[in-house]
Amino acid sequence: MVIGGTGGIGAALVTGLRAQGFEVLALGRRTQPSLDYTDASSVDACAQHVADHLALTGLALQRLVVATGFLHGETASGQHAQPERSWQNLGADALQHSFLINAIGPALVMRHFLPLLPRQGRAVAAFLSARVGSIGDNNLGGWYAYRASKAALNQLVHTAAIELARRNKQALCVALHPGTVDTGLSQPFAKTGLQVRPTDEAARDLLAVIEALPPGSSGKFFDHKGLSIGW
Ligand SMILES: NC(=O)c1ccc[n+]([C@@H]2O[C@H](COP(=O)([O-])OP(=O)(O)OC[C@H]3O[C@@H](n4cnc5c(N)ncnc54)[C@H](OP(=O)(O)O)[C@@H]3O)[C@@H](O)[C@H]2O)c1
Fold first, then answer.
1. Nearest to residue 133, comparing CAs of 104, 155, 111, 158?
2. For ligand 1, is residue 37 a contact (CB within 6 Å)?
3. Is residue 36 within 6 Å of ligand 1 at its C-beta?
4. In a structure prediction context, what are the per-residue pLDDT tens digits for the chain, which is 231 residues long?
5. Which atom from ligand 1 is nearest to the alpha carbon of 66?
6. pTM of the predicted model, to two decimals?
7. What is d(CA 89, CA 85) in angstroms, rounded to the nearest whole number?
8. Is the beta carbon of 75 within 6 A of some atom in ligand 1?
9. 10 lines ligand 1 (CB under 6 A)
């Protein structure tokens, strides 16, 4: 499953997983059923849809990748949000929307989809985070809402990994940083000299990291090269 499977990196992950031979279901705001974090009940309804499909087909949910995220653009209230350069730019609406899409939505995914992972054997839940969500790595400042909401996501991932291990010792739950990737999310900020990679390359790297995650790596934060990122 790829939640956010119609986004820039998400769509490339769907293609990459299909190429690996997985049957993949992509969910997003424009899929049927649709999943929209501004409507919490849609997460529950989509999970029920997936549970029914698994029961009907006998398939197991072996990989759950959550590729949703918000950095800039229109918020649920119709206002426009930009990453903040200064505390002077902090506003409740952008903070609320960033936390809704980057932390609360994925938390609802944990609640409704992690119970669908198999109780035995290897299974991976990977949540796309961002290196800027690392507090220890924050030397530049700025981007308050995005950084803070991704830090919240990282804590949720770590916490869920502990609970998941009680259900299935071989199941892994991790946070992943995809690198800077050429999507609508990064496009306005891609001029800063960072290396921007195409989505198919980013997806290939992320899927390689997911497949290579060793036992004991659950609850941790990795970049697209498989290198550990500090919290
Ligand atoms: N691109 C980068 O350089 C970069 C760097 C670091 C981390 N990341 C992270 O990588 C992940 C994927 O980002 P991307 O670059 O692929 O961005 P993107 O193309 O803008 O995709 C964003 C995804 O979030 C989904 N989304 C937004 N609002 C939503 C809502 N209300 N309910 C449900 N889904 C919603 C979008 O769904 P729709 O398809 O329905 O619009 C889309 O699938 C994000 O977590 C991002 O923070 C990206």
1. 155
2. yes
3. yes
4. 999 999 999 999 999 999 999 999 999 999 999 999 999 999 999 999 999 999 999 999 999 999 999 999 999 999 999 999 999 999 999 999 999 999 999 999 999 999 999 999 999 999 999 999 999 999 999 999 999 999 999 999 999 999 999 999 999 999 999 999 999 999 998 776 678 999 999 999 999 999 999 999 999 999 999 999 999
5. 45
6. 0.98
7. 7
8. no
9. yes
Give the number of the atom of ligand 1 that is nearest the alpha carbon of residue 100.
31
29 CA closest ligand 1 atom index: 40
Q: Which atom of ligand 1 is nearest to the CA of 7?
A: 43
CB-ligand 1 contact for 156 (6 Å cutoff):
no
Give the C-alpha distances (Å, rounded to integers) separating 183 from 8, 142, 186, 210: 5, 21, 6, 21
CA of 88 from ligand 1 middle (Å) equals 26
Q: Does residue 1 contact residue 61 with C-beta atoms inside 8 Å?
A: yes
8 A C-beta contact, residue 171 and residue 218: yes
Residue with tokens 């119970």: 115
Contact of 170 with 190, CB cutoff 8 Å: no
Class of domain 2-223: alpha beta
The total of other beta-carbon atoms located within 10 Å of residue 166's CB is 8
Pocket flag, ligand 1, residue 185 (CB < 6 Å)? yes
Domain ranges in the chain are 2-223
Residue to substitute in 128, 137, 150, 180 for testing ligand 1 pocket (most ligand atoms within 8 angstroms of CB): 128
Q: Among 166, 160, 168, 61, which Cα is nearest to 119's?
A: 168
